[in-house]
Amino acid sequence: MAAPRSSAGYIPWWLLLLVVSGFVLAAAILAGVAVSTRTADLPRPTATALVVVSGDGGGQVLPTPFVPPPTETRPGGPTPTVAEPIPTLSSLIPTLGGYVQVVGTGDIGFLNLRAEASRSAAVNYLALEREVFQVQAGPVEADGLVWWFLVDPATGTRNGWGAQNYLTVVAGP
Q1: How far is CA 103 from CA 50, 73, 114, 124, in A?
Q2: pTM value?
Q3: Disulfide engineering: 68 pairs with which of 2, 35, 83, 154, CB 3.0-4.6 Å?
Q4: What burial letters (b/e) apply to 134-156, b meaning 16+ CB within 10 Å?
Q5: CA 169 to CA 157: how far, in whole Å?
Q6: Domains along the chain?
Q7: CB-side exposure of 101: number of CA atoms within 13 Å?
Q8: Mean pLDDT of the chain
Q9: What is the pLDDT of residues 110-127, one digit of tens each?
Q10: Torsion angle, CA of 152/157/158/160, rounded to 10 degrees?
Q11: CB neighbours of residue 94 within 10 Å
């Protein structure tokens, strides 16, 4: 007669099946939630720049101004289409107390807000594309860029120096 087996390491097959089924069910629920809450893939904005050179040879990088669409031809003659006015130079440059939006970060999707106006300074915060900030100080020219000190108007705790190349002036938050 054979000696009885020890059952110390034995796990019933039905218990293993129950555990595996639980993991499969949890994975299916998480996948369903991920698919149902996924946001639509929005086209990423691309930033273009216009370099304005002053008489002293210095340059300022600014967003390209708005160009209105052509007029429509109607039976009574050409009728201008509704278009926004072309922004003036002063409306493209950030001002103290004004608001700017992060734009043109491309595939990276964020702008480094730094402790100082320098590419080598420590990063305080990663500002996401389309995030709005209030301008608190600047401009400071360093490392070939124009820098502005930006603060999140909602919390005031997210702040840092951001390069003007990735900012556009907006009306407010």
Answers
A1: 15, 35, 17, 18
A2: 0.49
A3: 83
A4: bbeebbeebeebbbbbbbbeeee
A5: 21
A6: 49-170 (2.30.30.40)
A7: 15
A8: 76
A9: 899 999 999 999 999 999
A10: 100
A11: 22
